[in-house]
């Protein structure tokens, strides 16, 4: 009895194999050419190596780098370095293997080339180098997902990392930006000069008004009173002498 159990166990071990699915991976069993719908993400998968095999694929976010020329609305070619971040949808692994296989990066690349050409042809070359870059990336991303998501590939980001405009266009854009900066600086200077002129006018008006008020308030009688008050204060000083003259204007001698 023990011998039979031992023989049976040996046979099972001989005819069965085990594969480990690690974190960040997904595995699906294929038996006699037919894929199972059950996807295993972590753990062991036991299978018969004579009739089955286990296909392992990474479900982590992957990066595909591309360098290519993109057309613009005015017919120019813009050199660009692209990063495409994508991920396999775990539950769609059997569908992905069936429809695209595991060598799917060339397919992603071709889909990007097609969608990027369609999208970029609606934008001017300078738009790819300006604030519209994010808009272009989003349009390409949405179009790619419409084509790839149905097979289990999810494009998470399309990043236009490096844009190299044609030399003449790049120089024109730089000159335009410099002219805009010069114009902004000149507007600032003009505005500053206007404010300074307004300040001087206000100061002059204040001086004029104060002098007018002062001159209107200083009558002959007030001047005489002020004159007498000053003489009285000087008379209190032991070092001052007042000499009266015929013209009613005394001299002060110390």
Can you describe this structure in just a few lines?
This protein has 254 residues and is α+β, with helices and mostly antiparallel strands.
Question: Can you give a write-up of this model?
Answer:
- With 254 residues, the chain is an alpha+beta fold.
- It folds into four domains: 12-58, no CATH class; 62-169, 2-Layer Sandwich (Tetrahydropterin Synthase, Chain A), CATH 3.30.479; 184-216; 220-253, no CATH class.
- Helix content is 47%, strand content 28%.
- The chain is built from six helices and ten strands; from the N terminus they run αβββββββαααβααββ.
- The chain has helices at 2-15, 93-99, 105-120, 133-148, 167-217, 220-235, and strands spanning 17-21, 25-31, 34-40, 43-47, 52-58, 62-71, 77-88, 153-164, 241-243, 251-253.
- The strands form four sheets. Strands 3-2-5 form a three-stranded antiparallel beta sheet, with helices on one face.
- A hairpin with a 7-residue loop joins β9 and β10.
- α3 packs across α4.
- It is elongated.
- The mean pLDDT is 78.
Index terms:
elongated, 3-stranded antiparallel β-sheet, 254 residues, 4 domains, 6 helices, Tetrahydropterin Synthase, Chain A, alpha+beta, single chain
The biggest beta sheet is recorded as: 3 strands, antiparallel
List how many beta strands DSSP finds: 10
Question: What order do the strands of the largest sheet run in, or round the barrel if closed?
Answer: 3-2-5
Structural class: alpha+beta
């Amino acid at each position: 009895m023990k011998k039979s159990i031992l023989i049976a166990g040996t046979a099972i071990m001989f005819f069965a194999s085990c594969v480990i699915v690690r974190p960040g991976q997904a595995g699906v069993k294929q038996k006699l050419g037919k894929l199972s719908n059950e996807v295993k993400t972590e753990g062991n998968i036991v299978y018969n190596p004579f009739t089955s095999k286990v296909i392992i694929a990474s479900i982590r976010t992957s990066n595909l780098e591309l360098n290519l020329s993109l057309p613009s609305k005015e017919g120019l070619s813009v050199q660009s370095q692209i990063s495409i971040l994508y991920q396999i949808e775990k539950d769609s692994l059997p569908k992905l293997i069936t429809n695209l296989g595991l060598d799917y990066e060339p397919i992603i690349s071709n889909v990007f080339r097609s969608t990027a050409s369609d999208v970029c042809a609606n934008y001017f070359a300078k738009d790819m180098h300006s604030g519209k870059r994010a808009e272009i990336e989003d349009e390409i991303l949405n179009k790619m997902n419409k084509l790839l998501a149905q097979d289990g590939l999810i494009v998470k980001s399309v990043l236009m990392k490096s844009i190299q405009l044609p030399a003449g266009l790049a120089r024109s854009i730089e000159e335009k930006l410099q002219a805009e900066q010069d114009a902004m600086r000149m507007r600032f200077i003009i505005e500053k000069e206007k404010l300074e002129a307004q300040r001087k006018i206000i100061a002059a008006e204040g001086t004029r008004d104060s002098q007018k008020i002062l001159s209107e308030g200083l009558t002959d009688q007030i001047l005489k009173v002020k004159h007498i008050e000053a003489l009285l204060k000087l008379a209190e000083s032991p070092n001052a002498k007042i000499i009266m003259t015929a013209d009613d204007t005394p001299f002060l001698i110390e």
